[in-house]
Write a structure and sequence with these properties.
It contains 16 helices and 15 strands. By secondary structure, it is α/β, with parallel strands linked by helices. The strands form 4 sheets. It has a 6-stranded parallel sheet. It has a 5-stranded parallel sheet with strand order 10-9-11-12-13, with helices on both faces. The chain starts with 10 loop residues before the first helix and ends with a helix.
């Protein structure tokens, strides 16, 4: 059936080469290192019950609205103070956004010497964490200068399972949050769709290209494909894929599968050929619908997802198959097998094109718009850790710690 081979990087790929006695010694050493590291860096993780209790709290319990005159900004300047996953590439890729996608008069810089004139200073969580080392005393070196009306923005696009540490040290530090979660001050999802208005819907209903579209016949490869490059398995993706492979062929490419011998462009070229894209996330988190889902829609594929949480307020209803909508994964596999060979049933998953359209999303545009809106009250997060942990999402598990350390 053309099953793809799942490759586990790090610890999982090495374990065959380690003698049993050495394996257990390394495992014990790992536990010791984990405990010691947790004590040194004050890493704390909440139980599901604790997260649930936090989730009952309102937004006002995490931030304080500051009274005072509204701030008027005609040409806001945004300073990217940190790298983005170790690189300032995000500045170079985004500096023209304000001129092309959102000409609202904002400017972007990564020059830290301009902090005194910056209206907003953006800090990327992962880069703050990566610079909190033993040498720095497990703390990030924030700038000493801060203007009273300056907005410090906490930016994060990673699910809770990727977030390390106790954020209580940042209480009272940030003014706005910028993330994929809908309760962020700057909401920046991985993708978006808008409902067609009456005029657009009427045009779509007479569009011969849409009416005659055969997405089923356009696929040259049978079954599904998944590109996985983040090999941790917090969401049990590999187990689900293994079950689905009993019903349809599934090919796995990327760093955790066959690889991309000619680079990622060669892998990307393979994706549109398959009927299904297995858009499985690496974590189960509220509002976490990544680019995997959105890009498969743009490619004319049916996304197969594994969402345990409700996402129909973000995703387009009827555009995907959720394996957790069935009594079992086997039941889902049996249904997908039928869709895989039934042209009419397969094409029915693209009716959303008569009611919705995909739209571009730019967090930078939303940040700019918010900075220019003098109706936005001044605020500060007095419970940053509470806001982060309030996202209903499984905390870090031992399996992830093992993967990271090995």
């Amino acid at each position: 059936m053309g099953k793809g081979k799942l490759k586990r990087d790090g610890f999982w790929s090495r374990r065959r080469c380690i003698a049993p006695s050495r394996y257990w010694k390394l495992f014990v050493l790992l536990l010791i290192i984990t405990v010691v590291f947790g004590m040194l860096s004050d890493l704390t993780y909440m139980s599901t019950e604790q997260v649930g209790k936090l989730n009952d709290r309102t937004e006002k319990q995490f931030k304080t609205i500051v009274t005072g005159e509204p701030v008027l900004r005609t040409s806001p300047k945004i300073l990217l103070y940190t790298n983005f996953f170790g690189s300032m590439k995000w500045y170079h890729e985004s500096k023209d956004v304000y001129q092309t996608k959102c000409p609202l008069g904002c400017t972007l810089t990564n020059d830290k010497s301009q902090i005194e004139s910056a209206d907003a200073v953006v800090y990327h969580l992962s880069d703050i964490a990566s610079q909190s080392t033993i040498k720095s005393g497990f703390s990030f070196s924030f700038p000493k200068y801060r203007r009273q009306d300056q907005v410090w923005v906490f930016f994060n696009i990673e699910p809770l399972t990727m977030i390390w540490g106790d954020m209580t040290v940042w209480q009272g530090m940030f003014n706005w949050t910028w993330s994929y979660t809908q309760n962020s001050d700057v909401y920046a999802p991985y993708g978006s769709a808008t409902t067609l208005n009456a005029e657009e819907a009427a045009v779509a209903e007479t569009n011969s290209e849409l009416l005659n579209a055969d997405f089923f016949g356009a696929k040259t490869e049978n079954g599904g494909i998944a590109m996985i490059s983040h090999c941790t398995d917090e969401a049990r993706r590999y187990r689900i894929i293994g079950t689905l492979q009993k019903y349809i062929p599934v090919r796995i490419i990327g760093r955790c599968g066959e690889g991309c011998p000619d680079g990622y462009l060669s892998c990307n070229a393979l994706l549109p050929k398959y009927k299904f894209y297995l858009a499985f996330e690496n974590s189960d988190c509220e509002d976490y619908v990544s680019e995997k889902y959105w890009r498969s829609l743009a490619r004319g594929q049916i996304p197969i997802v594994a969402w345990k949480l409700y996402h129909d307020d973000i995703a387009i209803p009827g555009s995907y198959i959720n394996v957790y909508d069935f009594p079992s994964i086997d039941a889902a596999g049996s249904y997908i097998q039928e869709v895989n060979k039934n042209k009419t049933l397969y094409n029915s998953y693209f009716k959303w094109r008569f009611t919705h359209k995909l739209s571009d999303v730019s967090g930078f545009c939303e940040l700019c718009r918010k900075l220019k809106d003098d109706a936005v009250p001044r605020m500060v997060y007095h419970d940053m850790n509470g806001w982060i942990m309030n996202q209903t999402c499984k905390p870090v598990t031992v399996s992830l710690i093992v993967y990271v350390l090995f």
